[in-house]
Structure formats: structure tokens, C-alpha cells
Amino acid sequence: MKPGVLVSLCLIGIGCRYDGRDNGVDLRALEARCALIPVCPEQQGGLPTPRVPAECRGGRVVTRDGGDVTAAFRRGAGQAALLAEQCHVKYALLKARSPSCGAREIYDGSFSGRLVPGAGVTAEVLRGMGIEVYDEGQIDELIRRIDSEERT
Questions:
Q1: Which of 81, 66, 76 is nearest to 129 (CA)?
Q2: Contact 13, 46 (CB under 8 A)
Q3: Residues 6+ apart with CB under 8 A from 44
Q4: By Cβ atoms counted within 10 A, which residue in 33, 40, 123, 150 is the most buried?
């Protein structure tokens, strides 16, 4: 049985980004090894598509127009965590720099394009569950990790 991997829905090619577009990447090599389990924490948290862009700032998630969407982001992270638990997921491939899914760095909350080390709300929750979180720049690394586990 193939291991399940949570994957950001936008990386699969579904237009669920804040602006209604996608961030589709080539997932064929990963899909050959894993069952891809799509997730969009922002939509699962109740936010519409399209939506006002949001960034993490001081423990909150705020929109460019000043709205506080922290509760929706937390709700979506909880839904992703529940799905990961139900599917016995060990790995997640999430959208880089997203306030939900960013695995290594996120925007600094100033809406100026500046990046800071850190993780999005969902990435943090999944890591807290012991799930290894990767972004689309780390697909080859994730594949190597899955392949090494298969050999053991």
C-alpha cells in the first residue's frame, strides 16, 4: 500500500489560491510512490476563493485590508490535522511561503514581499503531530525520504 502524503490543493493544479489561481507543479514522480491527499486549509477553514491576501503577523493572520482571519486559518489547520490523522500521514507537501502552508519561510506581515524564517499555521500544527513538512522546492528531497523509508 502506498503511503499517503498531504498535498496543498493548489500544487495539484486547482485554482484555490487567494487570487483564484493555482501553483501547479509536476507531481508525477511523487504520485508514483504515494497516494496524494489534497488539502486547502484556507478553504477548509471557511475562507472563499478568491479572497483578500493574508500574512502572519505577531501570532495572528491578518488580511491586507486589516481583517483578522486567524480563526479561519486555525480551523483549516485543524481540518488538515484531522485528515492527516485519519489517513495515517507521515509527510506533507505544502505551498511555500503561504500563511497556512509555508514550511520554511513566510511573509513578514507587512505585505511588502519580505520573507522571514518561519512556518504557516497548518505547517506548524502538522509538525507538532510529528509529520514531516516539505514545500514544492523540496519534492526531490521528499521522494528520497520516502524511498529510503521503503527500503527499511
A1: 81
A2: no
A3: 75, 76, 79, 80
A4: 123
